[in-house]
C-alpha cells in the first residue's frame, strides 16, 4: 500500500524570501518541484513533495513562501505559510543575511526540532551567512555538491524517533481474532475500502492477528461460523448500535472512528468533551477532513446532524471541510471526523487550539456511541 502523505513525517522549509528554500527542496528531492528565481515572492502556496529517506522512512517536505514577502499578495502568502507550522513535525530554517528572525521565534514556540541551513554555499554570500549564524551551528549546503544533502538527511535521522503510535494499541495482540464490520453503502467507494479500514487491516496483519471482514447483513452468519468468540469487533460508527445488538454480550466492541480518535487525536479530551451534549447548545461545528462531495445519508452532513437536531431542534450546525480555518469562539462543540487525511500533528494542533479556547471537541464515533447510549459498552484504546 502506498504511504499516504498523512502518515509521513512532515518537514516544513521556512525562511525569508530568496533564502534558498525552493532550491533546497529541489536539491533534496532531486526534482524540479518548485519554481526557482531571484524574484522575491516566487513561491506562492506551500509546495509539497513526498520522498523516502533511506534507513529512515517516508517524509513530506513542505516549501513555504518567504515570510517577509512585500508583494501585493504577500500577507496572504505569509498566512498560508503560518498555517503550515501547525502541520510540521520538524522545521528546516534557511538563514539569510537580513533575517529578522520573526517567524523563527514562532517556530521555537512549537518546541519541535529545528534544522538550521546556511545554503548558497555556491555563492560568495554563503560563507557570510554561515559566519553570521555560527552560534546556530547551521548545515552548510552547496547545491553543486550532490552529497551535501546527506548532511540534512543525517540530521533528520539523528532526531529522536519516538515509538510510532498504533491504531489498535492495547486492544489487539498476537493471535487475536478480530471481526471488522464494514458496511457497503452509498458512501463506500466502488471496488475498494476506505483508508481507515485498509490501515487497520494492515496493522492487524503486522500484529499477526486474524482479521475477518464482513458487512452488517452477514455479521450474524460470520459469527456463527467461527469456532470461538472474537477478541474484538471493530465496526463503522454508523452501525454501532446494530452491531452491538448482534454480537454476544461481553464481546469487546469499538469503531474505526474511535480507534482513529486515539491514533490521530486526544481521546481523553474527546471523551470528556462529548458530555457537552448533556448541556444546552447553540452552535456546533462538524469538521470533515475529506473534501469529497456529501451524498445522501452522509455521516457528517446528514446522519449526525439528524441525531443532533432530534435532541436540539433549534441547534445551529455549521460545516468545515478539508483544512479550513476554524473560528473556535463561534462554537459550543466541535465534532471532527476520524481525521485519517490529517497527520497526527495537524489534528493535535487543532485540539490544542480548542483547549486554549475552552471549546469542547470530540469526534464522529464517540458522538454516535454517546447519543445512542452505548459509549459505556465500547472498549477504548489506552
Automatic annotation (TrEMBL):
The keyword Nucleotide-binding applies. GO terms for cellular component: cytoplasm. The keyword GTP-binding applies. GO terms for biological process: tRNA methylation; tRNA wobble uridine modification. Residues 168-265 form the Hydrogen maturase F dimerization domain. Keywords: GTP-binding, Nucleotide-binding. It comes from the Bacteria. Residues 10-120 form the G domain. Residues 270-379 form the Hydrogen maturase F tetramerization domain. It holds the Pfam family MMR_HSR1. InterPro entries: FeFe-hyd_GTPase_HydF (IPR023873), GTP-bd (IPR006073), HydF_dimer (IPR041606), HydF_tetramer (IPR040644), P-loop_NTPase (IPR027417), Small_GTP-bd (IPR005225). This is Hydrogenase maturation GTPase HydF. It comes from Anaerococcus tetradius ATCC 35098.
